[in-house]
Amino acid sequence: MKNINFNKFFVLVLFLMQIAQIESYSQKDLSDFVLPRVKYSGGGDWYNDPSSEPNLLKFIAANTNIKTNPIYTYVDLSTSDIFNYPILFMTGHGSVNFSPKEVKNLQTYLENGGFLYVDDDYGLDPFIRKEMKKVFPDQEFVELPFSFGLFNCHFNFPQGTPKIHEHNGKPPKGYGLFYNNRLVVFYTYESNPSDGWADPEVHNDKPEIRELALKFGTNIVVWALTH
Hints:
Blueprint: H1 6-31, E1 37-39, H2 52-63, E2 74-76, E3 87-92, H3 100-111, E4 115-120, H4 125-135, E5 142-143, E6 173-179, E7 182-189, H5 193-197, H6 200-203, H7 207-226
Parallel strand pairs: 1-2, 3-4, 4-7
Antiparallel strand pairs: 5-6, 6-7
């Protein structure tokens, strides 16, 4: 009977167990996609329109092969919970003030495969620009060209970011921050797609406007999950 190298055998068992855990975790991720809202410091109403995410998730499930769990949930940037999700969603009307711990967590999250979508719900712009400089000090938001893949990865938006709500009547803009040539933060300004995801009676948007917003939200999710 040949001698068995028990040390090598033990290492092999551990390796196979790790592979099984990774496969199980991946399957759970793919079958139960949730879009968590970011809870942040600073006094802004990060929690507004809680019907937005469930409606978008239902639309995504009906129009793609992504299986979703259409619930409203949130994560605190100061906790490790953010690392449980491939995409985070952030919105609000007012001030944002990232603590040093929130900055570090968000930077680590984005540099290791995470994606953040930020939607200015009117009034967020000066604050989010200032706070994201803490996360990526050497970067400024850059406007994405209409040819950028996010605008046609599922539904086609030849003019880029759509205009969902008027706000100041300025043209809608889609901005990005990149890490290692990967879009890690997508920011919509003077557009406000997430208001269009909310229940119809919340903002009284026309059906075609709501559909446009939901289609654009789908593109954001599809792009983030596939790139």
